[in-house]
Amino acid sequence: FYCPLMSTFASLFLVQQDYYGKVLKKTSDLKSNACVAPTKPVPAFISQAVKKVHPEVSARYYGCGLVMPECLEGCSILDLGSGSGRDCYILSQLVGEKGHVTGIDMTEDQLEVARTYTDYHMQEFGYKKPNVCFIQGYIEALTEAGLENNSFDIIISNCVVNLSPDKRRVLTEAYRVLKDGGELYFSDIYSSGKLTEEIKKHKVLWGECLGGALWWKDLLQLAEEVGFSPPRLVTASIITVDNKELQDILGLFKFVSATYRLFKVPKGSTKPCQVMYNGNITGAEDSFHFDCQYTFKVDEVVEVDGEVASILTHSRFMEEFTFQPPGGPRGPCGVKAKVNATTKFVNVKMKQ
């Protein structure tokens, strides 16, 4: 596969291929906890799905959280930087036989592990034919990898976007291959400011997911420029670096592992409204944690702003809610969500 960035960023790609293909053989080889930091508690049904993944596939996994959005049955999902395929095989169980999961990764050593265990997992899941495939390519060049426009319901990524030297291109390509109403749901590492060139060029820091971390404010700007809805922060946790040599180089910079959701929906076309969650999403029968601002409880009327109203009415979540215009009957259970701005939330984390 041809990557148009190869001439400019060849050294970074080679560093990644060497680090993830040869240096790292198992999770314990990592020199910091950046690539393994959990981001939220794992529901029981997902824990069961994790247990069905082959031990070697899990051992070669280097993500910064378990990236599993809700409402997945029958969906077509793309995993950017799928590595050994752990998340793909978990998602395979959650989308069911009628759904499909595609993993893309540039590291052949990782893809070899993922492909080796395809038949094993299909037998384990009781599927008649594979609903998972893995392709080699770059997350900045999905066209060259053969992925078509408007072909995926959901894109996930687990601690991989920070490894790209052109994050705008990653978001642009993701937006292109998503269907209208589709979602980019991804966990990654973010910095408290724009990193120095010394940090960006440090091979170990780059491989450890820190050297390529995006300033969190830049994500907000990039998403808007590409066409996505404003990023919705799902959760965030502080990254600690226990390696003194690496910490000395990082200085006062702080890092968080954060999960965001971005949607490909029309902007400014929906007014605020009241919504009531119906409780039909698997694993969220009592309440649905949409992001750090909104958690929807079953049969509770919640007033949402126009931005969230647009997301809910144009995405796969549309059938999971009952909608009514502002000022409609609220009843004693009617509530208004607390305002907890995405920017303020992350900023607090960075200052801790």
Question: Descriptors for this entry?
Answer:
22% strand; 33% helix; alpha/beta; eight-stranded mixed sheet; disordered N terminus; 2 domains; four-stranded mixed sheet; Rossmann fold; single chain; 352 residues; Ribosomal Protein L9, domain 1
Please characterize this protein's 3D structure.
It comes from Mastacembelus armatus. Its EC number is 2.1.1.137. It is built from 13 helices and 14 strands. It is globular.
What does this entry show, briefly?
With 352 residues, the protein is of the alpha/beta class.
Largest sheet, strands/sense/barrel? 8 strands, mixed
What gyration radius follows from the Cα positions, in whole Å? 20 Å
Would you tell me which CATH topology of the largest domain applies? Rossmann fold
Please state the second-level CATH architecture of the largest domain.
3-Layer(aba) Sandwich
Domain Methyltransferase: 73-227
EC number: 2.1.1.137
Protein name: Arsenite methyltransferase
Family: Belongs to the methyltransferase superfamily. Arsenite methyltransferase family.
